[in-house]
Every structure is written in C-alpha cells, then in structure tokens.
Amino acid sequence: MVGKSGNRLSQAQAAWLLLAPFLITYLLFLVYPFFQGIWISLHDWNLLEVAFNPDAKTFVGFRNYERVMWGRNIEWGLFTAPFWQGLGFVGLALSVFLRRADRLSRFNAIALGVASLLLVVLPGFHPGEEGRWYDRRFWPTVGNTLVFVGLAVPGVTISAMVLAAALNRETKAMGALRTLFFLSQVLSVTVVTLIWQIMFSPRQGLIANITEVLGGTPINWLTDEQFAMAAIVIATIWWSLGVAMILFLAGLQDISREIYEAAALDNARGVKAFWYVTLPNLKRTITLVVVLQIILHFQVFGQAHLMTQGGPNDTTQVLVRYIYQTGFRDSELGRASAMAVFLFLIMGTFSVIQFIAGREKT
Amino acid sequence: MKHALLTAAAVATLATSAFAQEITLGRFFGACEDAGTDTTASVGEACIIQSIINAADAEIDGVSINTLPTDWGNYYDQIKAAYAGGTPPDVHVMHRHRIPEFAGIGALAEISDDLESVGIDPNDWSENALAAVSYNGGIYGVPMDFHANLWHVNMDIMAEAGLVADGKPVLPSSPEELLEHAQKVKEATGKDYLAADFAQFPIGVRLVLALMWQQNANIFTDDGTATINNDAAKNAVTAITQLFDAGLANPRLNYADSQQAFLNGEAAILVNGTWVVDFYTAEAAKSEVGLDNYYVADFPTLFETGATWADSHMWAIPSTLEGDKKMAALKVLAFINDHNIDWARTGHMAVCTSVVESDAYKSLPHRDEYAGTAAIARDTPPSERYGAIQDVLNRELQAIWLTGKSVDDALSDAEIEVQDLLDR
User: Is residue B130, in this structure, part of any structural domain at all?
Assistant: First the structure.
C-alpha cells in the first residue's frame, strides 16, 4: 500500500478495521451471551416472570449447580461402580506401563491417565443412607449423552472411513456416489428424523417390512428400551456421515501413490495396504474427525426430541433436551443455564484436546 | 396551504383507520393447507379451526389474520419464548390447565369488561366453561370446548365376542370384568381388546388418572402434596397392566400406530379423545378402511365413581395488547365464539348453552352416544407445573409397561419427583 497523504492507515489500524465487523458480531452474539448465561446460572430466574418483571430474579450463588449436580448425603466409595472404576484403574495402569515402555507419546499417556482417573473418581459418588440426588435425572441424562457420543462417534468415523476408502477412485460412478452419500448431510434434522421415523415404524416402515419378509417380528424401534438409542444413533450416523467422509477423502488424496507402490512390492495390497499404509497416514485426519464429532454429538437434540421424546423411560433423554425442557417447559432459566455451563465445560475440554493434538508433531 | 395540509392530515387519518389491523394468531391442532372459508364443510380439528380463522379473516372488517407456523409438540415452549421475547401472538389458543402458569404472572389480558363490546355473552357459557377461563375472579379467555377421553368402539369385533346388547357395546364395570371382556375378544376374534398410545403422548397417563379419580383419589392435593404411591394408583395401573401381561393389548403402540390399529379393525376399543369423532366417522364410512361399525362410548366406570380425563381449549390475548389492536383481537375471539357449533363438529363438547341445546348440535354424529361424558369430566388440581408433572407420570408409567420397572418402584419414584416439582 503506497499512499501519498499522511493519513493512510497503519497496518495494525487496517487490521482492526477489517476485523471489526467480525469482532463486533462475535462479542455481541457469542461472548456477551456466554457471560450472560453464566450470570443467569447464578440466579433463580423464571423465564416468564423475569420477562414481565425484571426484578423477579434472585441471586442464589451456586445453588443451581448444587441443585442440579449434587444431593443430600452424597458419599464416595471405591467400589460403587466396580466396572467403570475397575476400567479406570486398568486405564491408569496402562498409561503408566505404556509410557514406561515408550509405546505411548507423553501427550497420549497424560490424556489416557486423566480420562482413567476421572473414570475412577466420578462414578464413585453415590447417595448414602437416607440420601438422594437433588435432581435424579441429571446424571442419568449425562450418562445417556455419553452413551450416544460413545456409539455415534466411532460409528460415524468408521463408516465414513470405509466409505471414503471405497469411493476414493476417479471414475464418474464414484463421483456420483460421493455426492449421493454427502447429500444426507444437507438435510435438516426435522427431515432426517421424519425419514427415519417412517423407516423405523413397525407398521409401514421399510425395516419392519424387510424383517417380516425374512420371517421375523418387526421391532418397535422407537419405543423399545433396548433399541431406542440404537435407532437414534443409526439415524445420526446416516445424517452426519458426509463431512467426515469428505475429510477422509481429502486425507486419502494426500497420501502419495509411491508409498502404495512401495508397499505393493513388499506384497502389501488390499486390506494389508489399508492397515499398514492408509491408516497410519490418516492418523491426523482421524484425530480431527473424532474430536469434531465428539463436540458435535454432545449437542445432540433434534433426533432425541423428535424421534423418541427422550423415551422410553428416559433412555434417550440427552443433555441439551434436558436443558431445553428445564428452560422452556419449566421456565427455570437459571437451572438450565447451570446445566449449559456444565455442557460447555465438557465441550471446552475436547476443544482444548483438539487444539493440543493439532499442534503435536506426528 | 393550511387547508391542503388539513385535508392531507384528514386523508392520512382515514387511510390508517381503513388499513386492516393485522392480527397474528398462534394455535396448535396441526396444519391444514386448503381449509377454505366454509366453516360448515371442513373435517378434522386442523381444517375446521383453520376454516373458521380464514372466514374471520375474510368477514371481519378491518382485520386480517396471520396464522403463525407453530408445532404442536413444542407449542407452549414457543409461546413462552415469544412472551419472554416480548412478541407474543395477538391471539392464541391454550388449554385450561395452563391458565395458572400464564395468568399467574400477568401475561394474559383480563377481558371480562371487554366481552360485551364485541358481542360476546358470557352468560351463554355453561357454568363449567366460565370456570375454565376464570382465574382469581377474572376472565382470561374465551372458552371453545370441553374435550375428554372416550372409548371408541369397533362394534363388529364386539358383536363377534358377544359384547353387544340392544345395539350398544357392553363395557366393563370392574377391572376383573375388563380382563374377562378382553379375553372374550381374544378368544372370539384373535384381536386385541384395547389399543391406546401408551408409548408416547400421555394418553396412558390420562387413563390411569381417570381410574384413580374413579376411586376418589388424585395424584396430588390442592395444598401441594404428591399422593401417588398408594393403593388407588396401584389398582389403576394394574387394571391396565393385566391386559399387557395377558397379551390382550400392546403397550408399544404410539399415537399414530394405535389409531391405525383401530382403523384397520385390529382392536375392539381405542382410548382417545373427543377430537377424533368426526374423523373416525368419516373413515368408517370408507369401504377400504377396516373399521366399519363405529360407536362412541363414555369412559366406563371400573371403580366407584364415574370419571374421565378432560380439559378445555380456550383463546386468550396478551396483556400487552392495547387500543385498536386489542379491539381487533377481541373481534377475532368473538368470531370464534360465534362458531362454537362448527368447532363442535370435531366431536368436542360445546361451551355455549345455546349451542348445546340446539338441534344442530344434538344431531351431530354419535353425539347421543357419549352424552354422559360432560358429567364425569375431571382433571388434576391446577398447578403451574402441569406439563412437567404429566411428563413425570408419562415417564414412570412407560417404565412400567415398556421397560418392566416394578409398579412399586415406579410409583414411589413418581411420587418423589412430583413432590420435587410441587416444592420448587
């Protein structure tokens, strides 16, 4: 930039000017509401009452957090949830052992260690005699959300990777198929859930018809305790496959052909080549996809809200739906905000992990 | 010049008053694309109400109505968010049970002094209808109906099982008889006796509530004590679960599936509301529909006292509405009130005495078959937590019949959670 007059902008000024529209929007619509949310979570704040009378809120400090996450006579025990806590101990031992044997990078060892420690500590809390959780639905809801994430993330990642590997060829048919598989991603959640509600219907659904042809009795997918969560996960995988697949395709196309040729000389073809060449080279993409999916799927709402209404018996009740109900059905904005802050902390943690993992050298 | 300005001002005033007041209207009942303006020909809740709204839009001078897109399942969340954001619809439908929640904080306009100005005569409303829209001595809306749970009956299946006498279905008068009748139907036809949405919407809750009221019990008292973990609730629940246990009813059907089962002729009885009477009547007339011989019965009394779940639809306007806009909104309420007979075609019970006593009302299809329902209509005590309480009950009852939770555990959990809600 060459200007003759003295009032030209310095580089820093120009940068601020160009950033201003973004920064203002960001402050107004993300930063401000975020702190407002934390502020609300410290109040007894009724959605409707405060709208009609701004003084109808009362500051209660951390009481909302206590009412949501804590209880009366809560105790901690080492053997309250033997399976999960045992798993945690195994994880701890593994992280120490693998780090000693130098099979695990320092970062991965710390990550595994922290996750295992949480697994030992968190499930250990339980109400003692005469005790109870103040909110009996919160932790089971968190559990359901974790189950959903635990099923959807590997589901999406693996199926997207397999699809990407299969479609990574430069023919017209493959190009068409790539578009086809990506198409589901552009649909809104209402359309996706509508499609899958019809698919899962025990009366007219495609799945029920196929089961009947094969001589089985149709499953009531959405109202059966054992299948409701699976149904939601299946719909979600179908829906969110597209972006993950595109990311994998990009990663695959980064792998040089020469490596495959060299591998072929060593007799590594097909599955073997996938295992020894493709997978190691996709490591960074896999990390990216997994972390992005984790953050995305913790926010699951539409599928559970529209397909099962959180049922049967709360087995598909997820965190965002509980926040929504608490805020809008029950008008308890303070309590809902406290839960939202909790959700933010979980997602924030994974964002940090993604940030660190992204900087690590492979 | 002065003259010209004055004329211009006068013209401007005239022009603004000649402009139609746009009234935004929020409602549930579902969508109807081509409802038209003929309020006497439409079928089903969605189309009948939309035809009344369309007619109001066409016929009231200076008022145009914009029906907002809303979703039934999330209706109250949407309305609440709209109120909280300061942009509620100018006119909206709601249930009687929501009045404590909305009127309690001053969201709804108190309209008892405005009714006369638009020609609404509250003296024509039945006593119960007036009570339905009243809160702390004021009137907060215009009632539109009473709706209640009915037993929709497939007379052909009942006849096959020998459960018809004098052209009427023979319905059970005790839980034992309920099981007996269900077994008769199964033996004679191989079909289920009873279908209802036990898996999604709270139709199952309303069934259990009715059976509790029939034992003169309730789920909570007026002073806010939950009373769910008791014998009355256990009797009510087991009256239903005995059918599931014996394979005489399917708890896994949701609303659409249970309705389809009934229309396909796969179940003798469907427990559902007044809102489907005209729809089922129309369906039964079709030759391709499995249901041919349709009858509507009052909810039978299985215990001491007759009772069935009931509620009311009503129309309200926000307290923030003023001036011409409020007047226009009131005119819309008056128009809906004048079309009470058209709304009653759905199967709902009318609120205006003049309509109830009219021949047009009495001659509506099946109307005489459930004339006893008005007298046994019941609901829980009023509560700001109505929605959340229904959800707790729905969840715990579903846990019993869908996931095998023991009745004792479910009822004690339900009592704790409802008490939590009442205490909040």
Answer: yes
